[in-house]
């Protein structure tokens, strides 16, 4: 019986990059894209001219301006912390960590960056300025995550987390006994390729996905329960919360999307190297998934003024008014 290993490309592998190069290039591209997105968003925020609002110009209202400034500071701090941690992880993968641990670290890098992003947002929400006026306003009905989180973006985040878990389960069922390779037997020829997202990698990646989704839900609850902005309409305050929730979710879905794309691309690469037909198509799917996550991440949140204007004429739900205390 002829046994082939995956140390050198064979057959269809000649048309694919080496697994290490593919993973490393993906990590570097993710970092470069994140830096580019940060620059674009910063320039856009600095040069944007606000639209007039039916509720008044927010740029002329010191209360709204202060609230916007705090929300922007939290977002910028979270992105900065994530980029710094991403740079540290990339440096560690390149110089300090070797062997099988290097592959685990590369696979976990989007999740590590995403958890740092969430941690910075959590600190920002916990330090949100409280009302210092003699008369404080509060809603009669407690806000929930469903009130402040964009529904579609929240569902996308959960779906990507579930996709990572599904890919980890499929990898565990199809991997070899070592949990990090895939084998195909065709006649008298046995071909084995690695790395492959079996249990050796998949358990860590699935755990990271659970932590990301749970962490996102926790931060969203902080957004929903943070102190209300004084002397502004409730709809504007909700609009500002939805903008914060949007920023949290788009960062988490990016980390989950890149994790899922990396698992799919690495697994498809290994499968193609042992000769499974159609595996190359999954590499294209993985690239499309990563690009989609990036596109969603750069989509701006709805402006609180626009959100308030759109709902200015909407009927108020029973018990959803404000009470002074």
TrEMBL record:
Domain of life per record: Bacteria
Record field: transmembrane: 22-43, 74-94, 100-123, 156-176, 196-216, 251-272, 278-298
Keywords, alphabetical: Membrane, Transmembrane, Transmembrane helix
Listed name of the protein: DUF1648 domain-containing protein
